[in-house]
Amino acid sequence: MRPSSLDVLDLTLPVVTDPELETLIETRVGQLVRQLSSTSSPSGGSRGELGVRFYEKRRRKASGLGGWLTGTGKSEEEVCWEVWKLKITLTTPRTETERMTLLRAEAPALLRTAMNIVKIVNRDKDHIPPITTSEINPFPYEILLNPRAEFDGKGMGFFS
């Protein structure tokens, strides 16, 4: 794995180059944009969420004959240890001037959000399981579109 970066709105962000992850993110973002575009308000904005769940693979505890009778014979299970909710607002500027105004306003917001993520990640890390693999993404994850109902009350942490 080699360090890489991405320039967005005059901000350089670190990234992990993983084609599978990039494809998944592009797919989910595309789905969200299509959904929000079809429901946008007259003011040109609509809101949705992307949810990201991080899992740890744990050895499943044996239950009754190793799970043979209950059908739970898998030796591993995935346990959610963190949930992130990303609130997204899609805006559709009507003019080039409006587009430039929105871009100028979003750059500081992106910086604040990135710095808030760094602060939270550095502060709240006692619940993070140990990394036991050398894979690029050591924890299984899933990215869901508008996960409101299925995410509420689950996982170790909620970050917006």
Structure description:
The protein is α+β, with helices and mostly antiparallel strands. The chain has three helices and six strands; from the N terminus they run ββαββαβαβ.
Describe the structure in brief.
With 160 residues, the protein is an alpha+beta fold.
Question: How would you write the strand order of the largest sheet?
Answer: 5-3-4-6
Question: How many individual β-strands?
Answer: 6
Q: Portion of residues in helices?
A: 25-40%
Biggest sheet: strands, sense, closure?
A: 4 strands, mixed
Mean pLDDT, to the nearest integer, reads 80
Inertia-based shape: globular
Query: Roughly how many Å is the radius of gyration?
Result: 19 Å
Listing every helix as H and every strand as E from the N terminus to the C terminus, the arrangement reads EEHEEHEHE
Secondary-structure-based class equals alpha+beta
Are there runs of 5+ residues with pLDDT below 50, and where? 153-160
Distance between the termini: 28 Å
SSE blueprint and pairings:
Blueprint: E1 4-8, E2 11-15, H1 19-38, E3 45-59, E4 76-91, H2 96-123, E5 141-145, H3 148-151, E6 158-159
Parallel strand pairs: 4-6
Antiparallel strand pairs: 1-2, 3-4, 3-5
